[in-house]
Each structure stands twice: as C-alpha cells, then as structure tokens.
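Much of the work behind modern protein science is quiet bookkeeping, done one molecule at a time. The protein below has been through that process, and both of its lines are reproduced in full.


***
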Amino acid sequence: MKTEECPKFGPLQGVRVVNLTMAIAGPFACGLLADLGADVIGIESPLGRDTSRPTNEALQGWGTQMERRNTRSLCMNVKEGAGRTWFFELLKDADILMDGFRGGQMAKWGMPDEVLWEINPRLTIVHISGFGQTGDPSYVERASFDGIGQAFGCFMEMNGFPDRLPVLAFPQVSDYYAGFMADLGALAGYINAQKTGQGESVDVAQYESMLRCEGFYAVNYLNTGGLPVREGSHSTSSAGYGTYICKDGVPIYVLILGPGVVKKAIPAFGLEYGSDLFPVGTPVVAFGSEAGDVLEAAMEKFFSEHDAEEAEKIMLECGVPCSRIYNFAIAEKDPHYIARESFTEWKNSFNDETIRGVNVVPKLAKNPGQIWRGMPLVGADNEDILEELGATPDQIAAMYDEKLLKKEETPFG
C-alpha cells in the first residue's frame, strides 16, 4: 500500500513514524500513534521473526493484531547493503524513529544518533530498552523483558500478599508503561523539532518507566526510609479500601476515602456518622484501629448478605466508589462498554474475515482516530514503500535475491 492510498485522519496525519521494535512496548507505542493518524511503517527483520506475531492456530498473536493495525510492513535488513541504503532514504522524510534494541545497539551498527541526524536533522529518535542507553556498561547491554523491568524497577516487590513471594503484575505493565513514556518523548521531540528544526534523542529505560509511576512510594522511602508493604487485595492503611466477597461469590472493589465519601459510606453500613468512632469530617478510617475494625466487620456482613450487582447498586446510590471486579465476559455485556463502543471489530488486511478488539483510545471529538486496516502480513508493503523511495523493480528483485527483503504469504509465516 502506497502513502496516497492510506486514509488521512486524526491529529497526527502527515507524521511519519518508522518502527524498528518488536514484542510489546514499541509496537504498542507506535500503534497508539497509528490509531490517531500517523503513517507508521513497521520494519521487521528477514533474519528473525517477531515472536509476538501469529505462529499457528493456537498462537494467533492477538496482541500484534492490535498493535500493528493501521500500519504498513517493510521486511528488510537495515544493517547492510542496499537495505541500509534504503533505510537511510526512508529516514529522510521520517519524523520519528523508534528502536527497541538493547542499549547501544544502533551505534554498534554504525547508526548512532549523530549519523542519523546527518541524514535528517529534524528526526526524533526514541530508544526503548530495559536499562537505558547510558549508565553502568554492564547494565546497558542487558537484555530485558516485562518481568525484568518489573523486578529491577522495584514494582514487582510491591505486588502480591505480604506473607508470600512478590508476583508479576499482568498484563505486561513495564512494557506498556515504557510504551507510554516512548510516545510522550516522541511527541515532545516532534513538537520541538517543528519549532527549532532540531531533532531529539529520547532514552526510555523500562525500569525507569516503572519508577516514575511509583512516585509516592519512591519519595516516601527516599525521605523516610519506609519501604512499601505488599497489600494484596486490601489496603494496609485504610479501612473500607479493598476487595470484598458478595453473597453470590462475586468480588467487589470498594474505596472509602475522603471526608465526603466517608460521610456517605458510614450510614450505608448501618453505622453512626458523627459518633466518637466516626467524627464529622473524618477523611479516612485507619485500618486496624477500633473504628477500622468496626467498619470492616460491618462491610463484610453487608456484602455477605447481598449479591454483587445489588450491592454495587446500593453503594453507587449512596455515593460510594465501587465496582464489581469485571472480566471480559462481563465487560462485553455491560451497557457502558456497549454505549461507548469500547470493543469494536475491523477487517483483516489479508482476507475477508474480521477481528474483534479494543477501540481507539483516547477518543478525540474533533479529529478522531480510526481503524482502517488490520495487521499487515510481514513484508506486505515492501514494493510499495521502496518504489515510493525510488527503488526500481530490478533493484527490489535483487534485494530479494540477496535475502535483504522477505515477504510472508500467511499470518503464520
């Protein structure tokens, strides 16, 4: 598919993003930009397939079908020969380049930022790695996956129950956090390049993405020495803040926090607001205090006597923040999900079938995003992209002969 054949929509139309990433963090970041109209060209290597792509009927690569929708695929070896030449040609008109390699890998290929800026001074280069591009050399070159980012970034230690081993949080939190940080840096660099004509180098370390989103806990430790305690399914500091089991066995999450909520919640559980235990203006009921024990006992009794849907309705009518703990089967039938079209479907790019998935997020009122294409097959757009850059049919054929290009005929390879 050529550029002129791609629909123009969204606030990022006209922004070209070259994606050199695999797995989750980078494709997620680029997928968000593509949903809002950016022209994303995903470059995949003919030497090694993205493990997140579909591999067989049992492993359908659902995540990749989400994150590579709205994009074009060029399967080309960018490290050597004509592939390197045409990669540099592609960068001349690119606005953002994202790579997802270990720290320093692009420089090892003879492609440090300075070389890429000689090709395109306005290019914003986003490096996504586990440990960053600088620091202790023995760390910079380490490989990383989501669980490593969670473990090294002090995040995993906070998840689970205090009497058990720390647990990995799902789904792939450090990958997605890193993806968000990559987009923030990418767009900041792009905006500044429009003003100054100078590109930017964005260094996203997976573990630091985790740290930045642990602000309260990190600052608390650094200033008081207090380490966080794994809370499990209930706050260890606030009563009425956690998961409760209803009469029908369905869990519900409730959060009683703030003077306004406390004022509404206490009477809902048959307790007296304004009493010695729950004075007027109470902002939080301390877990483990006498008042906290009374409130917890009253809440457990209440939920044991009501089905989850009924309990949720009563809580919401009283102004108490709560929600049944949803799974996708519940969500699919929820009227709010349906009204907002949170789930949607789109047509595959390689056959007449459709795939269901999550709609464009965030929703924009004046320049909304859209889903116009499903995940392309590996190398589906090789010829169109290279011809746009000026490659002749003979040059493209030679690159196939030299194994610099590859094209797959099915989603499974």
Observations:
- The chain has a mean pLDDT of 97.
- The CA atoms of residues 241 and 333 lie 27 Å apart.
- The domain at 241-245+251-324 is CATH 3.30.1540.10 (formyl-coa transferase, domain 3).
